[in-house]
Amino acid sequence: MEENELLKKRKEKIEALRAEGIDLYPNNVNVKNTTEEILSRFSDADHDQLVQIEERFSIAGRIMAIRNFGKAAFISLQDRKGRLQGYIHKQIVGEEAYQLFKKLDVGDIVMTEGKVFRTKTGELTIEADRLRLLSKAIRPLPEKWHGLTDIETRYRQRHLDLIVNPRVKEVFQKRSRIIQLMRRFMEDRDFLEVETPMMQPRAGGAVARPFKTYHHALGMDLYLRIAPELYLKRLVTGGMERVYEINRNFRNEGISSFHNPEFTMMEFYQAYATYEDLMSLTESLFTFIAQNLLGQLTFSYQDRQIDLTPPWRRVTVKDAIIQTCRIDPDILENAARAIAYARSLHLDVNDQEPLGKVIMAIFEETAEAGLVQPTFVTHYPVEVSPLSRRNAVNPSLTDRFELYICGKEIANAFSELNDPVDQRDRFLMQLKDREAGDEEAHGMDEDYITALEYAMPPTAGEGIGIDRLVMLLTDSASIRDVILFPHMRIKDEGGN
RNA sequence: GGGCCCUUAGCUCAGCAGGUAGAGCAACUGACUCUUAAUCAGUAGGUUGUCGGUUCGAUCCCGACAGGGCUCACCA
Description:
The protein is α+β, with helices and mostly antiparallel strands and about 500 residues long. Helices cover about 35% and strands about 25% of the residues.
C-alpha cells in the first residue's frame, strides 16, 4: 500500500513514542468493568449521589472521539458493550499521563481507571486518574459522522465496519443468539448435535453444483458438501433417532442478495415423525426464537409486517398455483396442457419435461413471490424430490413441505424415503436426468442404499437456512449483511 | 454469465459545452478546564480505479479491463 502523508506522520509519531520508551503494545491488562455495567448501574444516580461513591472503575476500549480543551479533554471510549465518556484532566490524571494522552489518536485502544461522575450536561462519565495506552493505531478511522458507507469496503474490511457501524455488531449478536436458541430448542427435544463430513466423495443430499477439490494422499476427488442429508440419515439408521447439525453447505451457484456460495443450515432428523410433525415443530421453533429474541411474534422485514403466530397457512403446490393464477385445476394434471400453460407464461420448457418439473416451474414463476406470511407449501412432485417419501394417496407426490416467508424459501422438509428399492429407482431416475443434460441431478449412492437396506426407521427431516432466517429477524436486505465475510472477488492491486 | 448503474483526498461527498480539481470530517500548527458532529485561527493533503483511443489539451467523450451495486438466469 502506498505511503500517504497521513500514514507517514502517524508512523513518525509512533517512533517518537517508542523513543521515549513507551510500550505501544503491552499485554498485561487487568480490566474490571465494561461500559454497559457502569452505565446500567448508575443510570438513575444523580450528580450528588455519584459524589458519594468512592469506588474506582476501569474500562478498556477504543477511543472513538477526542474533544480537547487544553488542560482537560473528553474522550468517547467504545468497548464490546457500548460507549462511555471519559474525562481526562491534567491535575487528576497527572502530568506524565497527560503528556502521553496528548499524543494519542482517535482509534487507539486505551484503559482508563477512576471514579464516575455526571457532567453539567448530565452525561455519566469516568474521571480518569489513570490512563494507559494498550494498542496504538497507525491508520485513521473513517469519518465520525457519516462513518463508513462504501459497501465494498464494509465487506472487505469488516473490522472497520464493526468498529464504526454499531448496527453491524448488533446483527451478528442476534445471529449468535438465534443459533444459541436453536441449539437450546433442539436439546430440549432430545436431539443430539453431530458433525458429518464437509468433504464428500459424492456430493449428495440436494440438487446443486458442487465445489470440487482433490485429496493428494488418497489420490481422489472430493466435493465440498452441498448438504449433510445422506450422512445424517445414516446416523438415524445407526440408532441416533434424533440428530441435528448446524454447519456450512457449499454450492457452486450464482451469488445474489439471497445466495452466498457457502451458507449455514441447520439440518435435523427425527425418527418416528412425519413431515406434518415437523410443521408443528417448525412453528414452535420459530416462535420460540422470535419470542426470546424480539419478545413478540411479529416483526417487519423491508417494510412488510410478518406475523409468526401459529398455525401457519398450509397449501399444496398445486393449490398455490390455482389460487394465484385462477386456472382450471386439470391443467396441472396433464403434461401437455401444463407445458402449454407454462409457455404462455414465457417459461422455457421442453416437450419431454415431466409434469412435476413443469408444475414447479409454474409455481416458482407465479405463486412463490406472493407467499409473504409464513406458509407451508406441501405435496411436491416426486420428480423434484428424489429423497422424499411418496404420498400414500397420490404416489406422484411426496410428503414434503417448504416453508416460505416473504416469498423466500426458508426451510425444506419431508418424510424420508426409507424404502431402499424405491430409493434406487429414484436415483436411477436422476441418472436419466443427468444423461439428458441435467448436471445437477443427484448421483447414484450405493453406500447410502446399502445403509437403507439395514432398515432406517420411518423418519422426517428438515433443513433450515439460518442466514435467511437471520436476515428476516434482523431486517437485513442482503445475505451479505448477515455473513461476516461474504465472498468477493480478489482484488489484484493490494490494499483497499 | 446477460442487462443497467457506480468508482474523485484517509472517510462522506461536490465539480466540469473537454482548459489537469473543491468542501466537511480526519491529519498537522496554535488557542481553549464540562464537551459530546466541541469551538476559533492557520497549514498541508489528489497518477480523478487501470490501460488505451479521440483531441492542442481528458476527471469529463469513446473502447477495453478490474472491482462493486441492483437485476435476470442457476439455486437455498
